[in-house]
């Protein structure tokens, strides 16, 4: 059985993460003096070359721009090649300055609509780590500025010695189904006609099944009978893991029970297929969203 029955956008990072190498500064330095590939992100936007693929920065230049390694991340091995990512920040666009002539930075959501699976996986991994770095520069235990360790994958507080690891925040995203219909919800801020699967953050002490049942009760007033797993998706805005589920619910009147949704709506399989085809009044999220994959899977 393949590892991914359903491969979602951003889930295609092909690298061997080679985590043991993160703790080997001599090996990492040697790679950066040699043939390493260094990707660059500016405020989370990946650098793309004229071919619309991820562009590289010379390892020497990347080291100079990395702030003693603070903004340099070892992503892993692509065959024998070490792959790093450089985190650039600030208001002025480096492609019009220090990285002039190497390409342009692209919004990751826009790139997700056209990029290759492996490149989107690489960019998503680097973006998630860099978002964490930007939001966790200080020790959450004592407030001291923390220091980067393990090639970007950890931070250590020099004062209290607490170690801090990158966050991944799990979100359940689920399609409630009952008697050959599926239930979609709509938030007021979405484009007119847009409906999607229901979703919410998991809470401490909850199983995936319990979070799914709670969210469907809160958002639609329905009782969950069973939950089946479909697939998952790293979602680097800033660092979520979307856990895609299909939930069988008991018959009942669906109605938004909290302020999150402005409407919920049952669709038959035929209505769902029409929405997937772009026909009718219900619009669905784009193919990069796991919600779309859940809806398509059920409609099939
Ligand atoms: Zn501390």
Plain-language structure description:
The protein is of the alpha+beta class. 23% of the residues lie in helices and 28% in strands. The chain has helices spanning 25-32, 59-65, 108-112, 117-135, 208-220, 269-276, 290-299; strands at residues 37-42, 45-48, 56-57, 72-78, 81-88, 104-105, 147-149, 154-156, 163-164, 169-178, 181-186, 198-201, 224-235, 240-249, 263-268. The strands form three sheets. Strands 1, 2, 3, 4, 5 and 6 form a six-stranded mixed β-sheet that branches. Strands 10, 11, 12, 13, 14 and 15 form a six-stranded mixed β-sheet that branches. Strands 7-8-9 form a three-stranded antiparallel β-sheet, with no helix packed on it. The protein starts with 24 loop residues before the first helix and ends with a helix. It binds zinc ion. Residues 139, 141-142, 144, 157, 159-160, 162 line the site of zinc ion (ZN).
Biggest sheet descriptor:
6 strands, mixed
Topology as H/E string? HEEEHEEEHHEEEEEEHEEEHH
The helix content is: 10-25%
What is the overall silhouette? globular
Secondary-structure content class:
alpha+beta
Q: Ligands bound here? A: zinc ion
Question: Cα-atom Rg, whole angstroms?
Answer: 22 Å
Return the average pLDDT rounded to an integer.
Answer: 96
> What is the terminal separation in angstroms?
21 Å
* Low-pLDDT residue spans: none
Which strand-content bin applies to the residues? 25-35%
Number of strands: 15
Supply the number of helical segments.
7
Question: What's the gist of this structure?
Answer:
The protein is an alpha+beta fold and 300 residues long. 23% of the residues lie in helices and 28% in strands.
